[in-house]
């Protein structure tokens, strides 16, 4: 049998290796909790019955409003056991924004700081025997505000069944990967990069989950638990590389890593090539809507610097102009993807579906180009593009040039209303040393020799800290609004 319901798959894992370590949770203070496969299976069954006692039925939505935690993992597994749909969400949103999201999710149960203890107590009163096998009609939802700021839930409409392909590592495309893996999870589980490892857990991989990303705890976990792989954003990788003792840390257990979430600055990528090797770094491009994937390994990147890869796992890529016609090789247009998984999403909240061509290619609004070998290069999101003086500037390109400045720890580039330029390129920078921040003139002069004149920031703002989420994302639209539009 190759299509195994999630609940049955967890039961089988517990039967095959009851005392084997399945999950290690590391709290912010470094305290650790370890659970075996048997303990996870028992918790999923008792928590599943507790959810039913709270009125949760097959196909219902469960809102998960907690940081990474054992309780969060237990509830996700319990939801799959009873055929419900887990939807993690940010726990630190203002009340008004949280309520707006909950109205869209319309959950049968909300797991948060006020209900988790009660659910745990209820679970303790129920049997831990395996629940009847059912299949969730959708794997999970991921909350997004997109580029409009309006809440929407991206529902992964794949049924809750495990197949061997579900747990196939990215790196297996290039070379054999030892399994089971020991996967470090630094991202919050409300983000795709944080949630997907739970599906690898169902393939028998061990998860080491951080409550919150912390570079020191991350490196400690790699050494202590002999981590073999992890997925991280460029911001996380930058903070790790900036640790003063990173070169002395034992990273020998790492077989490969996956970078996603944003375009990787070349200098940072070369730093990780030095820490590991080009053959151990995989870069990927995709989106929560499951439209398709592009990927490449570090040694390929060296031959195609700046690329995010070729079509991966049967993904086809087209670059189209505003009229829907293919553009010449090397010319920027809108990125369209077509893959076997295309269409396995649905929006909750009234957001319109993404633009899809008659032959099934779909775009999330990103701009980019293909080279003559079919490698994809991402310029930026169309909504983030700055039109200044009639020319198009992509913030990601400017940020990539600025992040190499020795006095800059983090940077976000936005477009602000300007009477002369329409919108001016504005750089918001976080200094490496707050006692000696870089000057605006120094930042502008630094980047002037790296970019065309029209791309150079017209203004620079130094802030104590860039307002990033736990997933290291930033809301450009909110930053623009905060500065008057």
From TrEMBL:
<dbReference type="InterPro" id="IPR045851">
    <property type="entry name" value="AMP-bd_C_sf"/>
</dbReference>
<dbReference type="InterPro" id="IPR000873">
    <property type="entry name" value="AMP-dep_synth/lig_dom"/>
</dbReference>
<dbReference type="InterPro" id="IPR042099">
    <property type="entry name" value="ANL_N_sf"/>
</dbReference>
<dbReference type="InterPro" id="IPR050237">
    <property type="entry name" value="ATP-dep_AMP-bd_enzyme"/>
</dbReference>
<keyword id="KW-0436">Ligase</keyword>
<dbReference type="Pfam" id="PF13193">
    <property type="entry name" value="AMP-binding_C"/>
</dbReference>
<protein>
    <submittedName>
        <fullName>Putative acid-CoA ligase</fullName>
    </submittedName>
</protein>
<dbReference type="Pfam" id="PF00501">
    <property type="entry name" value="AMP-binding"/>
</dbReference>
<dbReference type="GO" id="GO:0016878">
    <property type="term" value="F:acid-thiol ligase activity"/>
</dbReference>
<dbReference type="InterPro" id="IPR025110">
    <property type="entry name" value="AMP-bd_C"/>
</dbReference>
């Amino acid at each position: 049998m190759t299509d195994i319901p999630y609940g049955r798959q967890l039961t089988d894992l517990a039967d095959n290796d009851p005392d084997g370590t399945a999950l290690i949770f590391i709290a912010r203070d470094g305290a650790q909790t370890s659970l075996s496969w048997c303990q996870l299976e028992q918790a999923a069954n008792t928590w599943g019955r507790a959810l039913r006692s709270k009125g949760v039925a097959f196909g219902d939505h469960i809102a998960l409003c907690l940081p990474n935690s054992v309780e969060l993992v237990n509830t996700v597994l319990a939801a799959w056991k009873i055929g419900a749909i887990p939807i993690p969400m940010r726990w630190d949103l203002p009340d008004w924004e949280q309520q707006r999201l909950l109205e869209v999710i319309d959950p049968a149960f909300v797991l948060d700081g006020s209900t988790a203890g009660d659910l745990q107590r209820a679970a303790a009163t129920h049997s831990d025997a395996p629940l009847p096998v059912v299949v969730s009609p959708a794997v999970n939802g991921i909350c997004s505000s997109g580029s409009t700021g309006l809440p929407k839930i991206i529902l992964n409409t794949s049924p809750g069944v495990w197949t061997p392909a579900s747990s196939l590592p990215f790196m297996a495309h290039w070379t054999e990967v030892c399994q089971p893996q020991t996967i470090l999870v630094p991202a919050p589980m409300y983000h795709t990069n944080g949630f997907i490892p739970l599906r690898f857990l169902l393939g028998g991989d061990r998860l080491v989950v951080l409550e919150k990303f912390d570079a020191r705890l991350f490196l400690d976990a790699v050494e202590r638990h002999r981590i073999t792989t992890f997925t991280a954003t460029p911001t996380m990788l930058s903070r790790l590389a900036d640790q003063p003792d990173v070169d002395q840390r034992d990273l020998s257990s790492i077989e490969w890593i996956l970078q996603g979430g944003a375009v990787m600055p070349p200098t940072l990528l070369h730093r990780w090539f030095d820490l590991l090797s080009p053959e151990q770094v995989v870069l990927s491009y995709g989106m929560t809507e499951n439209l398709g994937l592009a990927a490449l390994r570090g040694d390929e990147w060296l031959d195609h610097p700046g690329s995010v890869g070729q079509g991966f796992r049967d993904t086809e890529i087209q670059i189209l102009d505003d009229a829907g016609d293919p553009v010449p090789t090397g010319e920027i247009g809108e990125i369209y993807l077509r893959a076997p998984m295309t269409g396995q999403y649905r929006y909750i909240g009234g957001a319109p579906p993404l633009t899809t061509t008659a032959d099934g290619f779909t775009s999330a609004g990103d701009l980019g180009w293909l080279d003559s070998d079919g490698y994809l290069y991402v310029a930026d999101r169309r909504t983030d593009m700055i039109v200044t003086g009639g020319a198009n500037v992509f913030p990601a390109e400017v940020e990539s040039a600025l992040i190499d400045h020795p006095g800059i720890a983090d940077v976000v580039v936005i477009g602000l209303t300007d009477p002369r330029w329409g919108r001016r390129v504005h750089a918001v920078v976080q200094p490496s040393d707050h006692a000696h921040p870089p000057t605006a003139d120094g930042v502008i002069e630094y980047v002037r020799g790296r970019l065309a004149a029209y791309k150079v920031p017209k203004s620079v703002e130094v802030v104590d800290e860039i307002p990033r989420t736990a997933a290291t994302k930033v809301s450009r639209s909110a930053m623009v609004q905060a500065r008057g539009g």
